[in-house]
Design goal:
By secondary structure, the protein is of the alpha/beta class. The protein is built from twelve helices and 21 strands. Bound molecules: S-adenosylmethionine.
Length: 442
């Protein structure tokens, strides 16, 4: 079993560089680049849930007000631009799918009809197997049309022979089913009895969306329920098979694959998504062969290229902290450290005296009704002389303990999570090296 802190990460993947490993693999990057390096006939099952053609903006709910990251789902050139963009990816996916494999494409009414035509072109109409309707309730209802309460999932195989485990996805008979109670007698006199494992599944699936209190909820805006992926993976793969999700988001397909003892490959362009998947997977007890992550920043230059939100999310996770869960949390506090929950503020650039002053104020607010020592971390590219002087001043004058941490030390793992020491005479000291926490290896 592999702990979260042991998950190895390797730097940015170069185009075309792919090697199937013993471990499951998570790639942060543009999926066409990662896919172009994969050999033909590699995977047994593909599930993709690409950005829909919906002209919407999804906001991650854990960013603070100033730095909400949204993943845009906009296609300015219209549907044809979207379909052409998707075609490039589907061609790669068709190539990497084994002849016995299947692909599930998750979409909705915005583009489903156009996508179906494109899938027919690439996979061939003969290999179309199902149009699955995922029906759900919840959310708003329309008063002028029938409420739109379903997504569409197209299922194609690559050839005539594909894996399909009918018995693995049987569902209970309806309470009203007479057949379930007594079976039926055919004209010939032969009695057919219900299957004790339940009836065969059809192509309309009633599965609830993830409710706000659900344990599996991560906050990722388009997260899909595990139950949906369970049915797909059980139906179209066997233990040990390789599952690929090339738009993995917060990793629902990968988590379910892991739980069902399948191997998996996940790709997403968003570093925040990849960091989230790694921490979600880290919580699963049986991590099997382990995980390798590629494409997350490995150098200072790559860190500088990240969006402010991704950078902040990366830094806090790398310190093994918890990113701020609230959209409008304490202003100036981006997360809490893993030991003692000290507030952390992250700056992608240099930090000066004003940053320390503002953080001191944020700490006062944060600790206002608490007897705990007022302490926290600022992570930044570097710190001006004024910032360092201000740290000394607030410590001596206001008893506010701020530790300044260079990004480079977080990247290289030199930074060790700080532990506070409170002396008997209430002299609080912060020692940076009292407790060493294993950082994830880079
Ligand atoms: C609808 S979400 C997937 C949600 C996922 N099924 C889940 O349960 O969390 C689509 C994902 O595709 C990713 N994405 C968009 N364009 C991409 C690209 N070109 N390469 C890789 N990932 C991409 C987005 O970052 C987003 O996480």
């Amino acid at each position: 079993m592999m702990a979260k802190s042991d998950i190895p990460m390797i730097p940015y993947l170069k185009k075309g560089e792919f090697k199937l490993k013993e471990q499951n693999q998570l790639f942060c990057g543009e999926n066409t680049e990662v896919l172009s390096g994969m050999p033909d006939n590699l995977v047994d099952l593909i599930y993709i849930d690409p950005p829909f053609f919906s002209q919407r903006n999804y906001e991650l709910i854990w960013g603070d007000e100033a730095e909400i990251r949204s993943f845009e789902d906009r296609w300015d050139g219209g549907i044809q631009v979207y379909i052409d963009w998707m075609r490039d990816r589907i061609l790669h996916l068709h190539r990497v799918l084994k002849p016995t494999g299947s692909i599930y494409l998750h979409c909705d009414w915005h583009a489903s009809h156009y996508l179906k035509v494109m899938l027919d072109e690439i996979f061939g109409p003969r290999n179309f197997l199902n149009e699955i309707i995922w029906h759900y309730t919840g959310g708003g209802r329309s008063k002028t049309t029938f409420s739109r309460k379903h997504d569409t999932i197209f299922l194609y195989s690559k050839s005539d022979s594909h894996t399909f485990n009918t018995d693995a996805i049987r569902v209970p008979y309806k309470d009203t089913s007479g057949y379930a109670k007594t079976g039926i007698v055919a004209k010939s006199g032969k009695r057919y009895m219900p299957n004790p494992e339940g009836t065969l599944m059809d192509d309309v699936w009633d599965i609830p969306i993830i409710n706000p209190m659900a344990k599996e909820r991560t906050g990722y805006p388009t997260q899909k329920p595990e139950k949906l992926l369970e049915r797909i993976i059980k139906a179209s793969s066997n233990e040990g098979d390789i599952i690929l999700d090339a738009f993995c988001g917060c990793g629902t397909a990968l988590v379910v694959a892991q739980k069902l003892n399948r191997r998996w490959l996940g790709i997403d362009i968003s570093p925040s998504a990849i960091v989230l998947v790694s921490s979600r997977l880290g919580k699963i007890e049986a991590l099997g062969p382990g995980i390798e992550i590629s494409g997350l920043p490995g150098t200072m230059r790559e860190l500088q290229r990240m969006t402010p939100y991704d950078f902040q999310y990366w830094a806090i996770n790398r310190m093994l902290g918890a990113p701020s869960p609230r959209k409008s949390g304490d202003m100036g506090i981006d997360g809490l450290s893993c030991l003692n929950n000290y507030p952390i503020q992250v700056k992608q650039n240099s930090a000066g005296r004003n940053v320390v002053d503002n953080f001191a104020q944020a700490l006062r607010r944060h600790y206002q009704n608490s007897k705990r020592p007022v302490a926290g971390f600022i992570v930044a590219l570097d710190f001006t002389k004024g910032a360092k002087e201000e740290v000394v001043r607030t410590r001596n004058k206001d008893k506010i303990y701020i530790e300044l941490i260079n990004i480079e030390d977080v990247l290289t793992g030199k930074f060790n999570t700080t532990q506070k020491i409170v002396d008997d005479d209430d002299q609080t000291t912060i020692l940076s090296t009292t407790q060493k926490v294993n950082m994830r290896k880079v």
